[in-house]
Amino acid sequence: MKFCTIALIAFHTLLASTNASLSSVLRNKQAPWVSQPQAGPDSHPTNPFNIFVDHFSASRSGTDTFLQTQITALYPNSSIVTTDDIYFDIFRFAAGAPESLVIRELDDVESIKRTVFMKPARRREGTGKIAEQVVFGGWAVAWQDREFKIIFATWAESFRQVTQWHIITDSPAAANQFIHACASHCSTFRDVVWVFEQGLWRPDRALWESVQKASWDDVVLDGSFKKSLQSDYRSFFKSEKTYKDLGVPWKRGLIFLGPPGNGKTISLKALMKEVNVPSLYVKSFHSWGGDEKGIRDIFARARAEAPCVLVLEDLDSLITDDNRSFFLNEVDGLEDNDGLLLIGTTNHFDRLDPALSSRPSRFDRKYTFPDPSKAQRRDYAKWWQNRLHSNGKIEFPDSLLDEFADKTGNFSFAYMKEAFVSTLLVIASHDDSENDKPNFRTILLEQVHHLRHEMESTDSISAPSIPTMTTTNSPVSEMMGYTLARLEFSEDSMVYQIPWISM
């Protein structure tokens, strides 16, 4: 015990003496932030390539600091501005920047490159290609009226990949301006829909391309219904000043509800295509920090992108007893949600909590997409008739429009689409050398018959073992201004009918 006490006293005495000496040195002279070259005339590397290779061929630590100090020593008459910002990428900037940007490889800097095979995202896009990945390299860059030398290096460190750019310049201010312009451009993803799933946001180019194919011309809905929906979101994005003058938050919430296959998705895509604002699409609240962190990250991104469209898919599944309170607080709590158009979709409106389904300011309007009426079914067939007009193999008389509408009662748009698609597949598989020509009408009505049988078989299997009942108007339907269709429905499958849509 006595020995430990003596040793501890000696250690503190030595530490105090060392700190005093170090303080004295720092008061008299600032230590230079450069590495000391080893002794000998040939010991110092002669170019950035040797620095990189020598360093990675030996034991090392602090690679980022080592490279920065060594490159600084190589260019004593220039300033070195270093960045490892994840959004700084001179090649992506050069590919999409509106201003002139010229890049060429430096002759006096050797490059280290890897040849890699890049597999296509889809098999039908080809067999892939060979490309080069740069591990270490140098480029001369001309941007606006400035020229820079840039030394690039990337390496694995711990559990991450580090990328560092060293801008060699006579004007640090110009280098900072270049970093700002490049990172600002590269941090903005164009032509994507942002998707949140598994706790992360990711840019989805394929979904954006799918959205671009959508058009309101291809959406077969009641004219008044379509006009009302379009007017709702169009007027919202034009009415910021009106909201401000009225002293109310500039935000709006819509719910698209109804059985699957009746136009919610195509209408949503047509809306996303038309509005000139970012689109954010949420598939799940789950994240490594739980639903609360997921919800917080979702709304934080939406506020940063506003004005924008925030889509919540299958709202009835997203909102649970555990996350409801936190979600509601994000929607209409103290946070500023100006410019946010929130759209939730659900096939099961009856499962939504009243705090979501019946209170404006969270979701202000509900748009029901019911099974199409007879007139809508005829309009849908007419749409196909126009589309197939130039096909010489198909005879599509006007009489078939009414016949198709009569035989597709209770069909959703998805079922009707399948009838036409399967008919066209049958005709496409027909051998032209055969004498009998396929009859479009006969095949189409056969497909309708098969789909009817399939639908009824599925309904009989999934029907609950409770007696059906004649529905009456409920408080929810009266509140929404809807009436229940005068048909027999099971207790868990009530259909809300918009007043201006006839069955």
- As a whole number of angstroms, the C-alpha radius of gyration is 33 Å
Largest sheet: 7 strands, mixed
Structural class, please?
Answer: alpha/beta
Instruction: Tell me roughly what share of residues is in helical segments.
Output: 40-55%
Specify the overall morphology.
Answer: globular
Number of strands: 17
Question: What do the pLDDT scores average to?
Answer: 81
Class of the largest domain, according to the CATH hierarchy? Alpha Beta
Q: Span from first to last CA?
A: 94 Å
Q: So, CATH architecture of the largest domain?
A: 3-Layer(aba) Sandwich
CATH topology of the largest domain: Rossmann fold
Any low-confidence stretches, pLDDT <50, length ≥5? Answer: 1-41, 463-503
What is the strand content? 15-25%
Order of strands, main sheet, comes to 8-7-10-11-12-9-13
What is the number of helical segments per DSSP (H or I, 4+ residues)?
18
Q: What is the H level of CATH, i.e. the homologous superfamily of the largest domain?
A: P-loop containing nucleotide triphosphate hydrolases
Number of domains: 4
Signal peptide: 1-20
Family: Belongs to the AAA ATPase family.
GO molecular function: ATP binding; ATP hydrolysis activity; preribosome binding; RNA binding
Organism: Kwoniella bestiolae CBS 10118
Offer a quick outline of the entry.
The chain is of the alpha/beta class. It has four domains: 48-186, no CATH class; 194-368, Rossmann fold, CATH 3.40.50; 374-462; 466-503, no CATH class. 42% of the residues lie in helices and 20% in strands.
